[in-house]
Amino acid sequence: MDLGLTEAQQMLKNSARAFLETECPETYVRAMEEDERGFTPELWQQIAEQGWLGLTFPEQYGGVGLDFVDLSILLEEMGRALLPGPYFSTVVMAGLCLQEAGSDEQKQEFLPRIAEGGIIMTLALTEPSARWDAQGVQTVARATDAGFTINGTKLFVPNAHVSDYIIVVARTGEGDRDISLFIVGRDTPGIQQTLLKTIASDRQSELVFNNVSVPSSALLGELNQGWAAIEKVLAWGAVGKCAEMVGGGQQVLDMTVEYAKQRVQFGRPIGSFQAIQHHCANMATDVEGSRYITYQAAWRLSENLPAENEVAMAKAWVSDAYRRVCALGHQCHGAIGFTKEHSMQLYSRRAKAAELMFGDSDLHLETVAKSIGL
Questions:
Q1: Residue 290 and residue 246 in contact, taking contact as beta carbons nearer than 8 Å
Q2: Domain spanning 227-371: which superfamily?
Q3: Is 39 helix (H, G, I), strand (E, B) or coil?
Q4: Are 137 and 149 within 8 A, CB to CB?
């Protein structure tokens, strides 16, 4: 059984790592934590020129036409480099949602512009209830003569402050799954956006919609049929976030092993002590296990196979594993690993944020329990 990457996938991985090591060093990551936008337009354009923004979009819409496994490989390298900016929200959340639910006209209008770096988009799903199911959507869109009027509050919307368009998930009927999607311009009158202070400095916003009027053409796909697309986006998002966490975990492991080789205590490198060796071995086991369970889920999604169980297992396992890897990394580094000047805190803060995105381990473990008859 060959679980390795193909030659083309390995080339994508190598080129992504080389690009990110040059264009997204730690100095850039730290600078963007203090920057109001959270990224630079110059790097965004370079990413577009690499073809990454349209990696999985069909060629007819200006994309490259690769599959979700290829995207996961790229996301792993982005997680390793801690790439800041709206890539995940634009490509994985909004882009794949458009690709799944949009009409041909809507795809022609938006996907090529995303692929060339012309527009930034995001998805507004979660609300103050912080639920990830259809019942958690309480924002309402009511039909009017001119189109629809949207009222409600969305929380934890990534990169809304720099997005040109927001895909808003709203309730349009009385049934539990009577959910519709709307493409709304960020500057539409009635939208109030407030940046939230987050542990990962990842630019999430609260969006309040107060009688926001949109035309009928803003409806993405069919009326009351939006939740099917959101379920797929949640699966893609969960596995994509797992891939990012695998990349981050690998870098934490590499940093820790290197430190254990260099740090001398009691006259010898601390990596020669059994306790440190076992910590690093546990980290390596968690990282490698996370990689395989993530790519199993990614492969099933890219092949359009049933993957609910695999996605839930991956997100539940990788969320906890990344946290464990970071905790052991801090333990091995000692006091220096807990300082702001050290790189460890950059990863552990993002591990905590990623743990909650697209559902925490408790939510996904319930899904697994149901699938095995409990």
A1: yes
A2: Butyryl-CoA Dehydrogenase, subunit A, domain 3 (1.20.140.10)
A3: coil
A4: no
Strands 147-158 vs 140-143: parallel, antiparallel or unpaired? antiparallel
| Residue 281, both tokens | 């071995």
Task: Give per-residue pLDDT as tens, 239-281.
Answer: 999 999 999 999 999 999 999 999 989 999 999 999 999 999 9
- pTM score > 0.85 for this model? yes
**52 Cβ contact list (under 8 Å, min separation 6):** 16, 74, 87, 91
β 165-171/121-124 pair status: parallel
Q: Residue 181: name the closest of 223, 216, 209 by CA.
A: 223
Summarised one tens digit per residue, pLDDT across range 103-151 is 999 999 999 999 999 999 999 999 999 899 999 999 999 999 999 999 9
Q: How far is CA 95 from its chain centroid?
A: 12
Q: Is 271 left (phi over 0), alpha (psi -120 to 50) or beta?
A: alpha
Instruction: Return the domain boundaries, the chain.
Output: 7-118, 122-224, 227-371
Non-local (6+) Cβ contacts of 31 within 8 A are none
Q: What is the CA radius of gyration of the chain?
A: 21
Distance from CA of residue 164 to its chain's centroid?
Answer: 19
Domain made up of 7-118: CATH architecture: Orthogonal Bundle (1.10)
291 and 298 Cβ atoms separated by less than 8 Å: no
122-224, which class in CATH? mainly beta
Residue 137: which residues within 8 A CB-CB, separation 6 or more? 125, 127, 169, 170, 171, 179
Neighbours of 310 (CB within 10 A): 22
Closest to 188 (Cα-Cα) out of 155, 225, 227, 148:
148
